[in-house]
Amino acid sequence: xxxxxxxxxxxxxxxxxxxxxxxxxxxxxxxxxxxxxxxxxxxxxxxxxxxxxxxxxxxxxxxxxxxxxxxxxxxxxxxxxxxxxxxxxxxxxxxxxxxxxxxxxxxxxxxxxxxxxxxxxxxxxxxxxxxxxxxxxxxxxxxxxxxxxxxxxxxxxxxxxxxxxxxxxxxxxxxxxxxxxxxxxxxxxxxxxxxxxxxxxxxxxxxxxxxxxxxxxx
Length: 218
Hints:
Number of domains: 1
Radius of gyration: 18 Å
Strand content: under 5%
Number of strands: 0
Shape: globular
Structural class: mainly alpha
Distance between the termini: 10 Å
C-alpha cells in the first residue's frame, strides 16, 4: 500500500455504505413480510443493533484519524466500552428474537442439531482464535488509537492460518448458529443481514482506513 498518505475523509466510502444498507434493509423487510411480520419490535431492534454498532465504529474511527476527536471526547476506554456494549447487544437482541420466534423454521431435531453444530464450531473456533492470537481490543480497532499496534505482524495462527479475515468469514457464523439452534426463521433473516452488513463495513469503512494506517513509504 503506497497511496493513502492522508486519513480518509469522514464520508469516504459512506455513499456505498448507505446504498448497500438500503438494499439489505429492503431485502430484510421483504423477507420479514413473507414470514408474516413476526415480532416486529424484537425483529427491528435486532436489525438496528448492527447498524448502530457499525455507524458508531465508522464515526469514532474517522474522527480519531482526522483529529483525535474520539480520544479527546471519550478516550480509548470510552470507545472500547461503547464498542463491546453494542457488539454484545447484537447477540442479545438476536437471542431474544430467536427465543420468541423459536420453532418457526420447522427443522426436525437431527438436521437442526447437525446444522447448528456445523455453524457453531467454526464460529467458536474463530472467536477463540481472535481472543488468543489476535486480541479483542485489536479486533475492536485499537490501531486507530495506538500506533504501536500498526507495527505488529500479521497473525497466522488459529483460524488466521486459513484466512486473514477469520472474524468476518467465520466468527459471524455464530449468528447463524443462534438462529438455526432456536429453529427461528426471523432470526435467520437477521443473521443473514448482520453477516452481509459486516462486509459493507469492511469495504466502505475498514478498507479505506487500513490503506491509510498501513501505507508504506516510498
